[in-house]
Amino acid sequence: MNQPLADRVRPLDFDDMVGQEKLVGKNGVLRRMVESGHLTNMIFFGPPGTGKTTAANIIAEHSGMTLRRLNATTASLSDVKEVIEETGTMLGSGGILLYLDEIQYFNKKQQQSLLEYIEDGRITLIASTTENPYYYVYNAIISRSAVFEFRPVSADEIKRALLRSLDKLNSDGGNVTLSNDALEYLSNCGAGDVRRSIGLLDNAYYLAEASGGEITVELIESFTPKVLGSFDRAGDVHYDLLSCLQKSIRGSDPDAAVFYLAKLLAGGDLISACRRLQVMASEDVGLAYPMAAVIVRACVESARELGLPEAQIPLANAAIMLATAPKSNSADAAITKANADISIGKGQNVPTHLRSPNFVGYKYPHDYENHWVRQQYLPDDIKDAHYYEYGPNKTEQAAKAYWDKIKGDIK
């Protein structure tokens, strides 16, 4: 069997793992948990190639339990039941450690089938996912598990794995060398994914062996895609990029905004970029520049009509405009406060004069000077609630000055 190099060099203990120092380093929380002998249910989440499966294998080796593996992309409910049935046999006398890869592909019923057994300890679950578990994993499982995030591995850490992998390849009698430039290039090509960098090394090794014995940057470039990165439209990396785009715009950094927009579009995701820019126009710029929503909408419609690659031009206009515009989240903050009152049941009975059909006692503002008259609009139990605070920007302060004057709050 042609076993991938990444599997052949997979670490057997935490000392050989690269990256994830906070989890598996000398004082890493995951390492200390395992060394203490106390194992709980765990959820590992993070991009591909960051050590989730490796960590699970090492934990299984130290657990003394019977290890069973399932991949949720192919496993069914009957597979889960087979594992559960083992808990009542000699095989399960020491406990069953179930490693469930890609748990996000299990539906709610499949995930629920595990609950009884992880609650009473007959199964210890280690689930891994590339998705945000708080969106894709059943809440009852999350509440019974420790959640650990695996971050993209740095290029310097990936170099360690690459050199160990090269030694493994040469251990069978080869003598291929790796230039420093090529090592640097390979470590960056992984974009945080150790397995990807090792896979590239594996391919380059055999090409180099047949043509001179040295792995060079030029050799690697011959089969390396132009767009590098861990990009998955359905995965956490995708949401990380959207988050970075929004935070850059919120932080008024047009350079970072354009970079993350370009990275999203390089992955072919026009729709999510368009959607997020429209959200930001109202959430982060908002009432400081109300026309932002109109401008972004026009840019988005233009981008969708044009398609990629030309769509990047109007979207870049939108991103830069949002990044350099004045900011206000006053509307978002206001509705968040209102939702908080609604969530605890306040405001059930609206004022009688606002109800149809007769609106008895309602004062029609347009019949009064400046089209305004003082009257109660909120329900009695929250009649003095104050949700909206004018932002300090020019637009909202101008509105505040106007209404302070009309409502008589200032003379």
Radius of gyration: 29 Å
Low-confidence stretches: none
Classify the secondary structure makeup into a structural class.
alpha/beta
Task: Round the mean pLDDT to the nearest integer and report it.
Answer: 87
Helix content: 40-55%
Q: In sequence order, what are the helices and strands, one letter per element?
A: HHHEHEHEHHEHHEHEHHEHHHHHHHH
N- to C-terminal distance: 86 Å
**Could you describe the largest sheet, including whether it forms a barrel?**
5 strands, parallel
Strand arrangement across the biggest beta sheet: 2-3-4-1-5
Query: How much β-strand is present in the residues?
Result: 5-15%
What is the overall shape?
flat
How many helical elements? 20
